[in-house]
Every structure is written in structure tokens, then in C-alpha cells.
Design brief:
The complex is a heterodimer of chains A (426) and B (233). Chain A has helices at 17-21, 42-52, 94-97, 122-141, 160-163, 166-169, 205-215, 219-238, 285-299, 302-317, 319-323, 326-341, 359-362, 403-415, and strands at 8-10, 29-36, 61-65, 70-74, 82-83, 102-107, 110-116, 197-204, 248-255, 269-272, 275-276, 347-355, 365-372, 380-387, 390-397, 420-423. Chain A has 426 residues and is of the alpha+beta class. Chain B is an all-alpha fold. Chain B has 8 helices and 1 strand, in the order βαααααααα. In chain B, α1 (52-78) runs antiparallel to α2, α4 packs antiparallel against α5 and α6 (165-191) runs antiparallel to α7 (201-219). Chain B is flat and about 100 Å long. The interface between A and B is medium-sized, with 40 and 29 residues. β16 of chain A pairs parallel with β1 (10-11) of chain B.
Amino acid sequence: MKEHKPNWLRLDNAAKIYPAAKRRTWTNLFRLSATLTEPVDTAVLQSALEQTIPRFPSIAVRVRRGMFWYYLEKIKSAPKVEEDIAYPLRHTPFRALRKCAFRVLYFENRIAVEYFHAITDGNGGLVFLKTLLAEYLTQKYALSIPSGDGVLDRHDEPTEGELEDSFLKHEGRVAASRAAPTTYRISGTPETDGFLHLTTGILQVPEVLRMAKSYGVTLTELLTAAMVAAIVEMQNKAVPNPKRQRPVKVLVPVNLRRLFESTSLRNFVLFITPGVDPRMGNYTFEEIVKSVHYQMGMELSDKVMKTRITTNVKVEKSIFLKILPLFIKNIAMKAVYNMVGESKSCLAFSNLGAVKLPAVMERYIQRIDFILGAQATRPNNCGLLSYQDKLYINLTRNIREPVLERAFFSYLVKLGLGVKIESNQR
Amino acid sequence: MPYCVKCGVELAESEDKCPLCHTVVYHPDLPLMTANSPYPAQKASQTESVNRYGVLFFLSVLFVSIIALTLLIDVRFSGRMTWSGYPIGAVGLLYVITMPPLWFKRRHPIFFVALDYVAVAIYLWLVAFLTGGGWMRPFALPLLACLAGLTLIVMAVSRYLKCDPIYLYSGVVIAIGLFTVLLEGLINRTFQIRETLVWSLYPLASCLLVGVALVVVALCKPLREALHKIFFV
């Protein structure tokens, strides 16, 4: 296998928008964390981080500004691990991203890694976290952890496939349209001090799977339908006049590695936005489930996704865009992001799936969480994954009122699912 | 295993109230929960703010560059300073009007407006000096002083006196009428046009009528309500 250790990288196709779309109070971040069975040893964690980062030259980077594009530059040493604060994903100014585009935090038994979305997606981030955990456990307990189940061998050299921009490799001939209606916007009183509320719903995976099976859908489809139904109920209360209502859609990221051959650790996700338009009439939950199931079924194919990849790659390859100086490109890209980036869905509902670890690691790790930061203009976001027999649904918001959280989790309870709630409320 | 009585969800041991509806957790048979919160209490906010002095420096350099460029072009083509005094003065005036809010941490609107009038007076004096006109002291200065006085009084009254704004509008309208009389009087005296007032009496009369009408509306509540019903938007 060809070894590859570049000093700098171009941003991948999906990442190009993130540095341009950042603002003074918002950067696109996500967090992956693991809760151990014992308190974290910070010295060992720092040492494990130092051992791990050479294996990930596309993640152990900082963001730099070029004349025409941003780029990623390899960091010379690992960042210092930091103690966690009262809320996840605190705002990271660009001056911090210029030093390092991720950070490692600890609190009691928990190790968390927060990534700037321009360097990787949830799947790439999960591989990094698992490998870091493997190195930590190896150093702490002198374990012998084999590579596999998403854990990379720290002594291997990174491959070219791990660093490739897979979007460019899978460009097709036909481009899809981006046109979509503007969706319902959840609103509330913004938190002025940057506090991000986190509400975690813990469910039993077998229970949810049983219910999904009874509806003839997948776990993601069932929960997406519940989220859509909860937002429809919220909109009915907030905007009683059906003529003034807007479509309710949820952005569901799709891991393209499952559709295309790719081992990239960089961004390789696109999304689909299933939902309903309440202006057409009242939907029962069964109708919403069916609608979400068929919409996702239609969109989830390599051919449809290829047309979407083509649309994005064509923009990147436009000679007009290429020759624009970065500061002008930033203005244009930010305007595009503001117009189409977040207005086409109410929130992201990102399911990383069932997380598996090598058996030797599972004894030391009791929980894994996936948390998305709030969006720039919309207050909520949702990340979920399952580990062992528990499903962790992390809802974040940057407004005071927990309206969506209440609507969603109460809806799950009404459906007959048991939900345990945990939060960082102050 | 406490449950929220409103939402029906089970609550983790760290929750002393339901995070979804803020209902306080209470169960007569269970002791109060003591588990730690999943997040520490301390917080670090890292909000990024624009550096005010950086912006001030950048804009000041921009203004100075424009002034220097104008001066350079004038001297380069004319061999000396000829027309550039006007645009340089105008750029300086624009600087004084737009920049003071960046100089100070607190907002001082009355001071800023007073400063603006002083800058306008200096610019007019510069124009009068460059054109050799004798209109500054007998005409422009008293006019400007009057206008400045009127503006500052209106600002001070609206800021510090909590009176019905309709009285303020009335006073402003009457003052505008009187100002037109002053304007015509100064024009007549400075440029020796005529001895008597002619056109300014019309706006004065109109303004007096509107001003008095506003006072009547302010005093008569039923009339005010009737007008509000008819003209609300």
C-alpha cells in the first residue's frame, strides 16, 4: 500500500464551505466522546494523543488562509488536552483553528474530541477517537488491542485512500438541482453567552428496533419520522393557520462510504431531507413514517448521490470561482450558505449507527456520544448513535426554551418507548 | 428511577428538575438524588468580538490615504495646492461625522452632534476662506449656531425630560417656522436683497398653526383618541 504523509492538504469538496461560512459567534463543530469505566488519566491521555496524531495527517492539522482557498497544514505537535467546561462545543474563533482544528477534552471518566467539520466527518472522527482510545488503553493498562472495528494500527503509515477527496473521484455526468422549499424555522430566546444546551435521551436499542420492525422501517427512519411528527405538532401550535405553515424537513446525513468504495478519513457525506408539507393536510404518524421511508428509499442510491456529488464538484471546478481571491469567495460562499445552507431543513438528524469496538476495549468503555453543534441560523441539531444495547440521542440548542426537546422526547414516550433524560441544564 | 409527571420521561440521577419542562423532581418514597452533573459547573465563553481600535486604525488610515492621494494628484498636475482643499475638507468632515463613535467606549450622542456642527463650521470657514467670500461671519455662522442650538435642545429634551413627545413635535415645528424667518432676515441683511420679510412669513404661519394644533391635540384626550382611531396604521 502506498504511504502518504503530506505537509499540507487542500480542503475537500464538502469542507470548502465551512471556513467561509464561519462567523464571529459560530463555527461548524461536532464532538465525539467516550465515557470510560474509570477516571481519565490526563498524562496518559496526552501521551496517547501524541502517539496517535502522526497516523492521522488529515485530522492533525490547522486551517490556513491561502490567496484563493483555505488549506490544511500539518501541526508539528499535539495540542494540550484540556478540561471540559459546562457545555460542549464552545465557540472556537478562527485564530484557534489556525493553531489546531480539533481539541481533546476530559472530565471525570469522559474523553471527548471536538472537530472542526472542515477536517473530517462523523465517521472519520469516530475512527480517530477509537484509535486514540485504543492507544490510551494500551498505555494505561498494557493491553494488546488489534486493529479492526474502526481502530487503526498506530504504527502503520497513512494510506493515500485515507487522505483522498472521494467526492472528486466519484463525480458523474449529470448534476442534480439544489432547488428546495424553505422549511419551518424553530425560534426562541437566544443564549447570549454562547451556552449550548445539551439534552440526551437514552433508549434501549432492542425496544426501538422492535418498534421500527413493526412499522416495516429502519431505526433511523422511525426516529426521523418521530422528529418530523414532533416538529409538525410544534408548528401547528405556533402557526395555527395552515396557509402560513411551511414544510417540515429533517436533514439526514448519508455516509457515502457505504455506497461508494472509499476509505477516506475526510468528509465524505451528503444528505437527504425527508419530511412532509403540512399545508397538504393533517398527517397521521403512520403516514409520516411511510412518507419518510419512501423518500429515503428513493434518495439512498449511488446513482442519485452521484448526481448530487456532481453538482457540488462542478461548482468547485468553476474557473470563475477558482480565480476569485479568497476574501471575495468568502463573501459569495457565505451568502450562498445563508440562502440555501440551513433554510432547507429544520435541523440535522445525524445517525452514526451502531458503534462497535474490539471486545478487549468494550470492557473499559461504558458509553459513546455524538454531539453536533447548533447551526448558524437555526437553533437545534441532533446527533445519535448506539453503543452496546443503548441508543444515545443528543439534542443541542442555543436558545433557552427546550421546545423541540420536549416535543420530540414526549412523542417517543407517547409511541411507547422508554426514554431516560440527562442534560447539562444550569 | 424518578419520572417527570408532565413529560413521562425517566430522569437521570443528576437531574433535580426535568430538562424538558422544568418540573421539579419529587418523590415522597425516594431520597433526593445526588449524582454529579455530566458536565462541570465552570464555563469559558470565547465570543469573538471585533477589535474597535483595529477598525478605527484601518478606517483612519483609509481616510488619510484618500487625503494624501488627493493632495498628490493636485500638486502633481497643478504644481501647487489648488482645488484639493475642498475634497480634503469634505473627507475630513466625513471623518468627524462618522468616526467619533469608535473613539469612545460609551455613546455620547449630544457631544457627537455638537462636534459635527463644529466640523461643519470649520469646513464652511475653509470654503469661505478659499473662495474669498465674506458670508461666513454675517450669514453662515449665526445660521449654523441657531441650527445647532435647536438640534441640541431637542436632543437634550427628548433624552432627559420625560414629557409627552407631541409637545416636543409641536416645539420643533414652531422652531422651524421661526428658523425660516431668521434665514430670510440673514439673507436680506448679508446679501442686501430687501428691507422687509416676505416669503418666510408663510412657512412661519403654517408652522405656528400646526404647532398650536399639536398642542391642542396633546391637551384634548378625546380628540387625540378620535384622531388615533382614524389615522392609525
